Amino acid sequence: MTYQPSNGINTTSLTVKKVKSNLRIILIFLALNLFSFSFWNCSSSPGPVISPEKQTSSSSGASDAEKKPAAKNLTTEEKPKTTTTQESPTKTEKTKLNSSFTELSVPEKKSEKDVSDSNSQEEEALDPTRCLELAWQAYQDAQTAWDKGDLDTALLALDEAFGFLLEADFPPDSPLIQDKNDLRLLIARRIQEIYASRISAVIDNHRSIPLEENKYVLAEIKNFQTKERSFFEGSYRRSGRYRPFILKELQKEGLPEQLSWLPLIESGFKVNAYSRARALGLWQFISSTGYRFGLKRDRWIDERMDFIKATKAAIQYLKELHSFFGDWTTALAAYNCGEFRVQKLIQAQRINYLDNFWDLYIMLPRETARFVPRFIATLLIISNPEKYGFSLPPPDPPLEFEIVEINKPFKLATLAKNLGIESKVLEELNPELRHKSTPDRIYSLRVPPGYGAKTLASLENISRWIPPEATYVVHYVRRGETLSTIAQRYRTTVSAIARLNRLRSLHLIRPGQRLKVPSRSGYLSSRPSSMSLTKEGEKLVYIVKRGDSLYRIARAFNTSVKRIKQMNNLSSNVLRVGQKLTIQEGIPGGAQVYVVKKGDTPYKIAQKFGMN
């Protein structure tokens, strides 16, 4: 295979197979020594070029064609000379390699003869500006070949680009030196990308995950054999519900079927599994990554728990990670803790991550470090359970269902009652429904096989259901308070406060911190007894007292500052003591007003006023 630049310049053909091992090593060496070599090249004038006589002394027995400098092959200003014979590919390759090493040679003190020979070569060489133009053209050709997937041609074009750059010998004060360095960096990056894709293809080509039984994997196998044995066997049993679908999707994308066991260590094959890192579902997506791969979350649904949509999203994520890192072990580590964290660690440690994941393993966070060996341990046990002392239970039967398109919110329990089945059957088929009810829009409901028509008929007898609005009060932490005392004050739990505020630690709160605190139905906020409303006609009125503010009043009576200002035609937030503020309008005549107190329930209030 040969590369010919698109500008028609006559260059010598290169045989890819013969020069691949030597030439590409030189290219990578040049890429890694980009800035150091650039500085040396710019500070040496003229460039350190060995004359043919020096090559003769260092290469005994070489032919005249081999001793000819490579710079001659790049000449465009001279007219092509007619020759009766052509150099063999082997000689040409050797000449080009010699020219590459010549550019990297340490400058020596030149004799008068050397200077004379160098001057004759410079007269035949290209103008540096022209060399830079040709290097850019060759880089563009490499980009075109890369886009077409022709990696061999791309590498050859990049080699030509490097050759032209080596010939572009600018003076130290030339403004084009920066352009030369920038292009050299672009070429180096492209070479790295090509080799990364090449190595990933050589290692496994998306098809298999290497199962290395090292000390880390053996430790996880022992863990599954002992304290996590029940977890492993229970997860294996639940896998039967979802693996048939997962396998089908993996086959569509051409990914290893071994990945179908990933949910075993991620979630134990539980669709509602929730981690400390707020990852949710069979595939343990955090909300941001789920959103990135099309998983929606709103008041009604959380598609991270949808075993169909989450599986498709996870497969796309895994495919993307493998394409990026080049091997499955590194891709799996990135799946657990994020690709950017793994990439940053790799860059900081300068690890050859494409060749050996276990060099990276010891530098990963503990939880992520265990993730990959746990997965490999899972694959080894499942492939040969008897060897590792397991007698695995039979998997559960796969979930079967049919889909009904509905456009009405209702409770699954109500539908299950009408269908004569248990509500947990519908809940298991539709785990993404947050309130165990369908949303107020078109929704694809999964029902047991044979229940589609009956479901549609039952909907006419089921009333619409709207979930209650989430309610909370705002609390500003005071000195000496803890989550426990705050939870006790508002009759809620520490975990509920932590979940609503996404607190990573249950012990780190600071004075002045704003917390949302879940409030029970009918329970307002801890309003001082002095803050009460009086009824005037069809209005509820509050009389401003010393120390009051619009925010404090709005918070006390579960309204907003904006609403109070609108109802009272206020243009500013300034209040005066004794001022009357309308808090609510339209109270029917004769109606009584009752302010809810701590410990009240709707039943107690109804009993107090003789109501049902």
What does this structure look like?
The chain is mainly α and 612 residues long. The protein folds into 5 domains: 16-203, no CATH class; 215-388, Lysozyme; 402-461, no CATH class; 472-518, Roll (Membrane-bound Lytic Murein Transglycosylase D, Chain A); 534-608, Membrane-bound Lytic Murein Transglycosylase D, Chain A, CATH 3.10.350.10. 49% of the residues lie in helices and 6% in strands. The chain contains 26 helices and 7 strands. The chain has helices spanning 16-32, 34-43, 52-58, 64-67, 89-103, 112-124, 128-147, 151-167, 177-203, 215-225, 229-253, 262-266, 287-292, 307-325, 328-337, 339-349, 357-361, 366-383, 412-419, 423-429, 452-458, 483-489, 494-501, 550-556, 561-567, 602-608, and strands at residues 402-406, 443-447, 472-476, 514-518, 534-536, 539-543, 580-585. The strands form 3 sheets. It has a 3-stranded antiparallel sheet with strand order 5-6-7. The chain has a two-stranded antiparallel ribbon with strand order 1-2. The chain has a two-stranded antiparallel sheet with strand order 3-4. The longest helix has 27 residues, at 177-203. The N and C termini lie far apart (91 Å).
| Strand line-up in the sheet with most strands | 5-6-7
Q: Which band does the percent of strand residues land in?
A: 5-15%
Number of helices: 26
Summing up helix and strand content along with how strands pair, one would put the structural category as mainly alpha
Low-confidence stretches: 1-21, 35-124, 199-205, 521-526
Number of strand elements: 7
- Give the termini distance in whole angstroms: 91 Å
Looking at how many chains there are and whether they match, the oligomeric state comes to: single chain
| Helix percent band | 40-55%
Mean pLDDT, to the nearest integer, reads: 75
